[in-house]
Amino acid sequence: MVIKRIFDLILSFFGIIIALPIFIFIPILNILSGSKVFFIQERIGKNHKPFKLIKFATMVENAHIIGSTVTHQNDSRVTKIGAILRKTKLNEIPQLINVLIGDMSFVGPRPLPQKELSMYELNWAKKIYSMKPGITGLGSLYFYNEEMLLPENKDIAEIFFKEVIIPHKVELELWYAEHRNFILDIKIFIATLLLVFMPSHIILSYISKKLSGSKVKEKANEIIKMQMDLINNETEKSKSLAKEEN
Fold first, then answer.
1. Using an 8 Å Cβ cutoff, are 158 and 70 in contact?
2. Where are the domains of the chain?
3. How many whole angstroms separate alpha carbon 208 and alpha carbon 221?
4. Is 65 helix (H, G, I), strand (E, B) or coil?
5. Strands (E), the chain
6. Which residues, at least 6 apart from 43, have a Cβ–Cβ distance to it below 8 Å?
7. Is the Cβ–Cβ distance between 126 and 47 less than 8 Å?
8. What is the pLDDT of residue 23?
9. What is the pLDDT of residue 107?
10. Measured between alpha carbons, how far is 49 from 90 in angstroms, rounded to an integer?
């Protein structure tokens, strides 16, 4: 899709220029805190071709050796600065370079490490990764706060990831693979930006209305319920803490 590549080129070029202060400030913070500046990892791209994904480092060195590929709530491998970067998604900024050079697009399925991709059935993986992976996408949008949905216990988190999150993501990404078009990409891109300013259930409910097919709608609504349950639980915790302080 030529128009999509033109969009990616223009937006990533100007995005990098606008983000230059971030490319200077965050590395300084990481260096001062004793962390690596960048996290560079081989991920699987279009037609299963591997490439080097670039992010700002948010975890201790050799985190993938210390623990699993799944990052759960309050993961001890995440640095203090890293926790802020992950919450604000600023750690994703260097992927603009991946988009500029053509390894990724702004919208598409998330690029996965081979270990995580091996959890997908082969026919799913082939269909989903017949296109470039993206910084955001249908699966990324619905699971924008994936780490918060995962239990703090590492073993339970891995089971939940394999048995709940992956099947939901796969259903969304398969739907996107069959229905993708430039207008849909723009809607997903704008919806991702709006998550910073608007309640997630409003954004996700709007996108859900655009999905055709009972199965994908069911999965999308289940995710929205997960998000709402999480918000309600966090609200209850805050109220309980406020009462204790009073």
1. yes
2. 2-232
3. 7
4. helix
5. 38-44, 50-56, 105-107, 134-136
6. 50, 51, 52, 53, 111, 112, 113, 133
7. no
8. 95
9. 97
10. 26
